[in-house]
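Blackboard transcription, Thursday session:
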Amino acid sequence: MNTLRRMLVEEFRLHTELFGRSRFLLFPLFVTAVAAGGIWLLELTGSSPATIVAGIFGLVFFFGLQVGTLGLVGRDAMRDVLGDVTLLVFSARTLPVSRRYLLGVFILKDILYYAVFFLTPIVVGFLPLVIGGEFALSQIPLLWLTVAATFALGAGTSLAAAGVGTRSRLALLAAVTAVVAGTVLEPELAIAVTPYALYGEPTPATAVLNALVLVSVLVAGPLLFEPTTNDSRRRTDADRYRQLRRLGDSYTTRTLLEVSRSSGSVWKVAFSLGILFAVGALLLDRLAVATALDPSAGVAFGTLLGLGTFTTYNWVTQVDSPREHLRFPADFGELYRGKLRAFLVLAMPVGTGYLGVASLWYPPGELLLGLVVFPLVSLYVFGLTAFLTGLSPNELLFDTPRFAVYGAGLAALGVPLLVAALAYGTAPRQSAGIAVGLSAVAAIVGVVLVSRTGNRWQTRLRGD
Amino acid sequence: MPAVETSDLGKEYGDVVALEGLDLTVERGELYGLLGPNGSGKTTTIEILTGQRTPTSGAATVLGIDPVADPVDVRREIGILPEREDPPSFLTPREYLEFVGEIRDIGAIDERIDRWAGKLDFRGILDTLSADLSEGERQRVMLAQVFIHEPELAFIDEPLVNLDPLMQAEVKDQLVAYCEAGNTLFLSTHFVEVAEQLCTEIGIIADGELVAERDPQHLEEGLLATFEESVGGAEEPVEVSGQ
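(Written on the board underneath:)
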């Protein structure tokens, strides 16, 4: 308990140090406001509370997976992300506690921390529906409990995957394949072991089953995880820089090497976008069941995958030290153009591949729109993320004002595109035109933002 | 024209004054040491002179170029080694130096890499990922990137940190030889011993102000006394932590 308490204090101090106390403490209020507004709007546009709840569970699970994915990149990249910061979780070498114990407490700390600062505000966002009589107040505690458990399941799942991956990449591939195949072939069974099932059917049997699955997943990560620092081998490699350099500029080449050689290699790009793709597929499926709408799978997937490329931006900047680049006689504009090329090289094949996967159960012709929308939205996301966060996208979360601007920027494009996707059944031609037109305009905005990013961040760093 | 010249240079971070009224002249061919405890303004000075930070007040020229107005031009002409900076974790030293060579647009990079890897004794680890190198090996790679384009002027923050005694002696010789060839070196250190052994001129900085300048070859006693005074009277001022 003492370690947990100290880790919670450490996390709080880290965030208040990074973003300032008041900016950070505003964050839960901001999430509550956004959640309440979004839920109210969705209800106003005809979505049932049950569909909204399903969407929240999907998003929270995605968020949990994303937070846990940090484990995938290993201790070395974690240190790169956090700079000079040394966390208690790394103290197993100097203190008489096991690494597994520290990792277990670290996960527990993350679950509690995010439950307070992120998940509780989301659940409080249901209050407008409670006031309007659309949602029972008595459901709120169960919703909070199961949403928190869903986050824990997501974080635990990706950490367990990371743990398996540190032992055997083949075993990880087999485990991921088995889970994906199980989810596709028996979706009802897959949902039955998640807290979403407990929310729908709060019986002792479901609770016991859920608890067993959750505890197993949470224990698996720390038990299996083997940090790379235990490996005393020195990794050597041929001159890949020169080989890759023929295909691009210096910054692109360096970024591609860094992504491919860091833990998780290029697969982490596919993993992050795959999570979003799966959540998108689930939501589209639920939507088709719950409503009479016939949404455009192409526009919906293109938009969701495009918005999801913020994770790719995270990967292409994960080991960058912004000040390092200030030492070179090169303009920051070159750096960001190189990052953009690396981003496109990594994200485009993956997104296109997922659209190809979607063609297994959606008409391929319908997905062609996705092939147009996805790269255009991705360009916008790159431009917006680079402009607002520079080379430190991880610092975005919990910096309330910047997060609000970023969220508004994504929503400004994402919401109309998703509305266009939903309206496709009734006005296909107009919806397609609007989706392509909006994405094209957004892509231009993205390119303009990229062109201004270098100067903006160079000036900021020099003035700090 | 001096290699480095500053006039009333100042830098504030909010309410904190990091540098105040710095007037400094470093002649060409000099091995200049900026000596001071942690937090005295050494790193800020180097960052301003290398175009990495903009000063709040004052002016500076480096090789006749204004680092505030033309930071990229300054960086093209000089070599820089900040304190506690490692080569990129997921590049090998060979790849990193190739990357540096391209950014600096210099030719014959293979020959240069081989020469500097030989001088600093890291040929054996040229194809090892930097993440797997020891701290001393990383420091040697970082020293190589300072000199690989053979700049007229180099700025080095704590040059000998993490090096074993043998390599420290080797690097000291390299730095002296570099200056004897007519180049200029601007060192920042909080080790009095390092400054005394290497430098031809020493500036003592404390609380953001230059409190004294000395020739260490002739004024060792005076230097130590001034330094002790500037940092509050350390009894054994071989290394000064500033605490």
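Lecturer's comment: The first helix of chain B runs from residue 42 to 49.
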